[in-house]
């Protein structure tokens, strides 16, 4: 797979700095039951990288010391980490709001029975990837049969109370564009999702998050192989909106990889661009997490600031 990092580093992206930290995003490993074409992690069934319980314990200590509000769990499929349930249980004991960035098919995968019930019991917010509401588009991006399995899993979450009035159980969906395009307006897409999924599957959700595809890892390599890398990067740059700089997620989020090393965001993690440019382990920040640090930027940052903007919770503007 082509390493596109050298194509991104000579960047004119504006300098930005960190603000008050509120979210700790933990990548629990690159193991996943799917291998999606848009995946910026290059996750898949053959990946073996998994976060240890020891690293999870350090993260919980860091969260307590820094009064973190949100624990954002991602992967791969974070539920495939053997210590996933332990981490969620301990985080909830600390009063953390836990978010699970869930590939919904894992909830109906053999060996993961009871995962949906566990999430509901711990009042975990589920952020489920469903890159389109049309079956053909989802299966083209994620694999044959993924749409049907995803719908089954989401219906299961609904049955457990997710997205139901007064349940307190939040179910958000995530949209990714097909190929070289920015997402359509989030509110318009959310309405289309709500109508189609409601009419055809009696499916309910709270919000739809639209996320721009990043030209890194698997997606970046595919663009390069097809001779479209520069074209896509130019689209991101031409769509840049300076107002989005105020709201980029890296100002309030710290990303932790499966070994415990820290980055400004998940995308920098995948490009191996460490916090402040030097390799730092989370354990080194237990005494102090400085504020107003400069954020490491490169051309992929245009993906977060193009058009409506893009973050782990959808649009920025």
Structure in words:
The chain contains 10 helices and 8 strands. With 317 residues, it is of the alpha/beta class. The protein has an 8-stranded mixed sheet. Strand 3, helix 3 (115-121) and strand 4 form a beta-alpha-beta unit. Helix 1 (53-65) runs parallel beside helix 2.
List the helices and strands and how they pair.
Elements: E1 23-27, H1 53-65, E2 70-74, H2 84-93, E3 97-102, H3 115-121, E4 125-129, H4 135-142, H5 146-159, E5 171-175, H6 186-201, E6 207-210, H7 217-225, H8 229-238, E7 253-256, E8 262-263, H9 266-271, H10 302-305
Parallel strand pairs: 1-2, 1-7, 2-3, 3-4, 4-5, 5-6
Antiparallel strand pairs: 7-8
Helix pairs in contact: 1-2
Biggest sheet: strand arrangement: 6-5-4-3-2-1-7-8
Please indicate the percent range of residues in DSSP E strands (runs of 2 or more): 5-15%
Largest sheet, if any?
A: 8 strands, mixed
Q: Which blocks of ≥5 consecutive residues have pLDDT under 50?
A: none
